[in-house]
């Protein structure tokens, strides 16, 4: 389990847990939450204090504070070793070839360099 404290506009960036389903209980505030299914369909909703949302195991998901103040939530995962992989950092901070990223995302070399600079060690 983890307590998540969000500043106004705070974000848990898109990530996955390859070995666990996550359930999120909102204690305070409003969060835009969502996940992307295996057929690339976005399921997103705003959850408020007292609401619960489930992120299926292994699917890309995120949380964003869309309220007018702070937000607090409790996340529980059904594994003591859920794993976590932040997608942007994995793609642009891991050393994947610029050519691969340019072709995969239809980006220019300059755009890839700019994005990669945000994830440099």
UniProtKB/TrEMBL annotation:
<feature type="domain" description="Cupin type-1">
    <location>
        <begin position="1"/>
        <end position="113"/>
    </location>
</feature>
<keyword id="KW-0964">Secreted</keyword>
<dbReference type="InterPro" id="IPR019780">
    <property type="entry name" value="Germin_Mn-BS"/>
</dbReference>
<comment type="similarity">
    <text>Belongs to the germin family.</text>
</comment>
<dbReference type="InterPro" id="IPR011051">
    <property type="entry name" value="RmlC_Cupin_sf"/>
</dbReference>
<protein>
    <recommendedName>
        <fullName>Germin-like protein</fullName>
    </recommendedName>
</protein>
<dbReference type="InterPro" id="IPR006045">
    <property type="entry name" value="Cupin_1"/>
</dbReference>
<dbReference type="InterPro" id="IPR014710">
    <property type="entry name" value="RmlC-like_jellyroll"/>
</dbReference>
<keyword id="KW-0052">Apoplast</keyword>
<keyword id="KW-0479">Metal-binding</keyword>
<dbReference type="Pfam" id="PF00190">
    <property type="entry name" value="Cupin_1"/>
</dbReference>
<dbReference type="InterPro" id="IPR001929">
    <property type="entry name" value="Germin"/>
</dbReference>
<keyword id="KW-0464">Manganese</keyword>
């Amino acid at each position: 389990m983890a307590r998540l404290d969000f500043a106004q506009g705070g974000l848990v960036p898109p990530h996955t847990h390859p070995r666990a389903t996550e359930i999120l209980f909102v204690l305070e505030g409003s969060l835009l939450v969502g996940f992307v299914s295996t057929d690339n369909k976005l399921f997103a909703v705003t959850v408020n204090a007292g609401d619960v949302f489930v992120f299926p195991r292994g699917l890309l998901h995120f949380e964003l504070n869309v309220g007018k103040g702070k937000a607090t939530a409790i996340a529980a995962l059904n594994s003591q070793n859920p794993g976590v992989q932040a997608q942007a950092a994995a793609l642009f901070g891991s050393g994947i070839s610029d050519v691969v990223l340019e072709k995969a995302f239809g980006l220019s070399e300059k755009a890839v360099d700019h994005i990669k600079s945000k994830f440099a060690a």
